Amino acid sequence: MQKAAFDIAIVGGGIVGLATAYQIQQEFPKLNLIILEKENELAFHQTGRNSGVIHSGLYYKPGTLRAKNCVSGRKQLIEFAKANNIEYDICGKIVLAINKQEEERLKFLKINGEKNGLIGLKLLSSYEIKEIEPYVEGVAALWVPESGIINYKAVCNKLSKRIVERNPNSKIALNTKLLDIDNETLFSTKGTFNAKHSIFCGGLFSDRLAKKDKLNLDMEIVGFRGDYYHLSEIAKSKVNNLIYPVPNPEFPFLGVHLTRMIDGSIECGPNAVFTFKREGYQKTDFSWRDTLEALSFSGTWRLFINHWKFGLNEYRRAFSKVLFLKELKKMIPTLEMKDIIESRSGVRAMALGKDGKIIDDFKIVKSKNNLHVLNAPSPAATACLAIGDQILQHVKKHFNLEIK
User: Fold this and answer.
1) CATH placement of domain 223-353
2) C-alpha 336: how far from chain center
3) How is 314-358 classified by DSSP, letter by letter?
4) Considering just the CA atoms, what is the radius of gyration of the chain in Å?
5) What is the rounded CA–CA span in Å between residue 226 and residue 314?
């Protein structure tokens, strides 16, 4: 067991925690930082299980932190990738309308994206769609040239390397689970750490970490699992880059899409179903604590009531390859059952208020000497460096640090 002192402790070794540490260390290289990660590798949960998409900022309400951080963060992410030889591809994507109603929504999406500063957005005819994605069928589409793909785990590994290079006294502690907090003392499975300030980037457990820090919350994290398929070697030639459906404004998810990964494989998904375990990546995973906590929260039931039809359809598709394929065939009609192969899954941390409404924007709050990232929804991976810079501004304002 060890006892060590640091200027700032960052709890959580996902992309938000690492980007935060990187931005702080770049600004203040003499600060000694420690990153506590409970797993034996970085980016094990949400970061390492997302779709690898570099989001453009198309969907988010203008003026929100999601919109601002996505656009700013995307530019910073690309510059970081260039400087650190991380493979990426700004390949563009199409948002596909399969009927006239969806075609009308494309016009509003284009206006929204332009308000967020996107350039090159173009409405496509059915003929123009074929020039980009020959196997896709639709009445219209929106071309989004600033979307791309990257390996976020590779980004995290490079961030961690740059952090300790900047200050060899800064540490990344793996297999170190936080157990409790008492002012400046952090109790963990690897001993006790003293830090003048702590920044909590706990993702799926951000609410529980806040409660350990005696923070009163009016929200809770509820997990939603997303299952993926991938296309067979023969079928993957039917997708060139990224193909998204037009999102239904009544539902809180973007819908099943097709994504070319940086290794050339094609993923299909994810769906979105309530999970009975926060880190439950299998369909039968279950945790009594996670389930009871979620189902005893009033916001969960209000969400279910408001979106019961959507939730039922998602559950049916989660256990039916036939229904999953049916959804994909709306975009690529020639896909067959043999073309899609069960793949991985991930769990999304959804922050819910007591009224059952999803907290859409990033939420960072101060508690005594600490900061808590209570909500970092998609596009958090794309926006990680912008979020890190935002947290850096909080550090400058609220932390009492003797910075030389």
Assistant:
1) 3.30.9
2) 30
3) HHHHHT-HHHHHHHHHTT-TT--GGGEEEEEEEEEEEEEETTS-B
4) 21
5) 10
Gap between the Cα atoms of 29 and 10, Å rounded = 15
**Burial class of residue 121 in the structure, from the number of CB atoms within 10 Å of its CB (0-12 exposed, 13-18 middle, 19+ buried):** buried
**Segments in 84-124 forming alpha helices (H):** 100-115
- CA torsion angle 374 378 384 386 (round to 10): -90
pLDDT of residue 242: 98
Q: What is the DSSP letter of 186?
A: E
Of 101, 84, 98, the residue nearest 22 (C-alpha)? 84
How many Cβ atoms sit within 10 Å of the Cβ of residue 273? Answer: 22
Report the pLDDT value the prediction gives residue 1, as an integer from 0 to 100.
47
Closest to 145 measured CA to CA, from 95, 79, 215, 76: 95
Query: Which residues in the chain show pLDDT less than 50?
Result: 1
How many residues would you count in the chain? 404
Q: Which of 39, 41, 45, 37 is nearest to 17 (CA)?
A: 37
Helix, strand or coil for residue 195? strand
CATH topology of domain 2-47+152-218+360-398: FAD/NAD(P)-binding domain (3.50.50)
Q: Comparing C-alpha atoms, which of 160, 225, 178 is closest to residue 372?
A: 178
Every domain of the chain and the residues it spans:
2-47+152-218+360-398, 223-353
Q: How far apart are CA 7 and CA 193, in angstroms?
A: 11
Residue 137: half-sphere exposure toward Cβ, Cα within 13 Å: 8
The residue written with tokens 């109790």 in the block is 187
Residue bearing tokens 């006294």: 169
pLDDT of residue 252: 65
In the prediction, which pLDDT does 401 show? 78
CA neighbor of 227 nearest in space, from 103, 137, 138, 314: 314
Nearest CA-CA partner of 401 in 161, 166, 165, 184 = 184
